[in-house]
Amino acid sequence: MTIRVLLGIEDRAVAAALGGLVDELPGHEVAGVRASSDDVAAAAAAEPGLDVVLLHRDLGPLAPLEVVRDLAVRHPHLPVVLVTEDTGVEAFAAAMAAGARGVVSTRPTLSELEDRIRQAVEWSRAMRRHLTTAGADPGESLPPRRQGRLVTLCGAKGGVGTTTLAIHLALATAATGRSVCLIDMDLQKGDVAGYLDVRHRHSVSDLAAAGDGLDGGVVADALYVHPAGPHVLLGPGQGEDAEEISARVSRSVLGIARARYDVVLVDGGAYVTEAAAVAVELADEAVIVATPDVPALRGAARLAGIWARLAIRKEEDASVLLAKHDRRNEIQPDLARKMVGPPVRAVTVPAAFRALEEAANTGSPLTVKQTAFRKAIGSVAADLGLLSGEPDEDERETPGGRGGGRSWKRP
After folding, report:
1. 37-62: per-residue pLDDT in tens?
2. Is 288 exposed, middle or buried (0-12, 13-18, 19+ CB in 10 A)?
3. Where does 106-202 show beta strands of DSSP type E?
């Protein structure tokens, strides 16, 4: 009987080396190589004949130990062996606590690799016998977990209302009963905390400090739970800390958030940073917020051009949302469409300076009562697909408790 091994490894050199060793083992074959955690999860669901997964410690976007936990829940018969540079006691203990069946070096000897795979497969066969005796189908998998909808809002320039929109969209979506995570990725000048009058000891900077230990529990500890429903990940308290937030951290945080929330909203600011670029790249909707004036629309065109040249996102896959719109404006949506490359969304957000002034000064966005503005926010939320579908508590791990304490409800 052939033992089929799935490699979850992004590094091509490591994948080639381990794949070569697996091929040297009699009766073993590489069932495939997957370069992301999402692809590993999809392969585990689509190929019930897998015998073992070799999962590299540097795989992303979801933290590898989170992938191990998810596979252990959804495919209890499928063993995972963690591939890591560090095979010490602490690394082994963390892997086993997550549900892995072993740890192997990135450069193992043939006998070491064979031994780890053999132990994992023996455990798997025992588990399959146990499941069969209990009347369960060992090859049956739970339905694949659907990812939350990720929408990234970026400003054409400063002052166009990106943060205001992100906050009000989060509040409006949460009011429908959907689970919402609002992430401030305007790392140098982001002020979601100020607009919500939040004083919270944790921010995205704490996640950067976590390094390879970044997982769902660490993210949960960093979240602030707003009384109105949204869970908020604040930007750094000090602008210079922005340099610590790498693309890898951003990718991991967004992957974890999408696995647990129905909607993830990102305030990407008006600057192209590594972290914000990842949020734009991964987004289901990447929206440039602009006001109906020449400087903002030129800024929107420049930003879309930068995304395209850096291969972050094609111009046609982004869109422009007009904020602070008024019928008396010299530039109306039809003219704006001729001035920018990306499509301009049909919905607009009206100018509501006085209505928003008190809310901004007091950190109380729920005090905004202007009917036209609230109606527009609802229309934008619907247009972005934030209100579609029903929240499913059985499919998503939901954080709870004011201040983002570690209280994930696991399925």
Report:
1. 888 888 888 887 889 999 998 888 88
2. buried
3. 149-155, 180-184
List the domain boundaries for the chain. Answer: 3-133, 149-383
CA 111-116-120 angle, to 5 degrees, is 145
Contact status, residue 79 vs residue 120, Cβ threshold 8 Å: yes
DSSP string, 261-294: -SEEEEE--SS--HHHHHHHHH-SEEEEEE-SSH
Please tell me the total number of residues recorded for the chain in this structure: 411
Q: Is 190 exposed, middle or buried (0-12, 13-18, 19+ CB in 10 A)?
A: buried
Helix then strand then coil, in percent of the chain rounded to 5, is 45, 20, 40
Q: Predicted confidence band at 389 (pLDDT cuts at 50, 70, 90)?
A: low
Question: From CA 306, how far away is CA 314, in angstroms rounded?
Answer: 10
Can you tell me the distance from the alpha carbon of 143 to that of 344, in angstroms, rounded to the nearest whole number? 37
* Distance separating alpha carbons of residues 280 and 89, to the nearest angstrom: 39
* Domain 3-133, CATH number (from 3.40.50.300, 3.20.20.70, 3.40.50.970, 3.40.50.2300): 3.40.50.2300
Task: Assign a CATH topology to domain 149-383.
Answer: Rossmann fold (3.40.50)
